[in-house]
Amino acid sequence: MTQIAVIxxxxxxLHSVSKALEAVSQKESIVITSDQEVIxxxxxxxxxxxxxxxxxxxxxxxxxxxxxxxEVKKKPTLAICVxxxxxxxxxxENGGVEGLGLLNGKVCKIQSNKDIKVPHMGWNQVNYLxxxxxxxxxxxxxxxxxxxxxxxxxxxDALTETIHGEKFVSSFAKDNIxxxxxxxxxxxxAGLQLYKNFLDWSV
Amino acid sequence: MSVAKRIIPCLDVxxxxxxxxxxxxxxxxxxxxxxxxxxxxxxxxDEITMLDITASHETRDTTYKTVESIASQVFxxxxxxxxxxxxxxxxxxxxxxxxxxxxxxxxVENPSFVKEAADKFGSQCIVVAVDAKAKTDKENSWEVVxxxxxxxxxxxxxxxxxxxxxxxxxxxxxxxxxxxxxKEGFDNNLVSKVSSGISIPVIASGGVGNLDHLIDGVxxxxxxxxxxxxxxxxxxxxxxxxxxxxxxxxxxxxx
Lengths: 203, 255
Known about the structure:
By secondary structure, chain A is α/β, with parallel strands linked by helices. Helix content of chain A is 27%, strand content 32%.
């Protein structure tokens, strides 16, 4: 049976992610885990993250980090929100934090003004720059649920973009890594379809 | 293209049942929260807010169970409020499946609670609910009221919303206690004053009686989201009809 590990390093809304995966899974088993052995024996990884990036990075202990970095290189991986931001090169949040550098790009603060509220909270359109298996059966410009105050303005690994005042990268794809700024687990049918695609994805 | 304006149906829950009263009187039973939440999700609600209006100690476990069962069946954001006093309360609600937690009275009594909560869980999940009542002695001026409108605090609403924004609130749920339950529409003057003074999103609440009121909340009040309860519970209007009306008036909504 295919096993999906939702990586638990103490940050992130793991239950909503695993509930959404369970809702679309047919034969896969979904486990929330911080156990390095379980991560190593899993077939796919989900890397969530919520809150401040510095806290997320710090909560991610050295041992676990090493294992995850090793496994992420070879297994289909879905990173979500701050989990996605952690895979980039760096973030200017919390006075500057170094990222894991698996994806190209840097994270910056979203500029607010009278019309542009920060956090960027709510449903916004995701526009395709390229095709990808994980976008299968989801129409271009579908709405997904976002909640974030920092974003990556541009990346060589960009797959989709979204506009909130300025354009930013709303999802990334590189080899076996798929990473999203939005929350598929809160994005109703479009989000559930994306999770289904992730379960069906083979790299 | 921009972020869509949100329609948020609100479930006032008392001992595990959805209820809705007019000015907190004449409470009518409107059904099972899980079933209602599922219906709203199907109709295209952008989020769901659930307020535990009893929020007494004995019924707390019922609340967590309700949250858990909504969250396992509805895949849109769920905000839960009512009786949130401690960091532990927030942790339990988030663990039960809430995405955001709304803090009201305890924020007023201890503003640093907002800061502590935002630092610990992130601004994205901390909603500060502000119940506002017009001051009788001064025009265009509102004071914060607590305990479901029973207690005046003399805190100025505009100053208060600026302060909690600074403390890390991610969103303001702004209810006009003068309008709540009246079906006369939002206090758009209040909504627009608060919304233009802060950088975080404002959810307008209190007084919706028809679909034009939702449109006015966005167009006149400048709200990022509009919240309503009774017009949806008793099927006067569906969420879909509300969205169609908003779209027809030129507001960006999600379909």
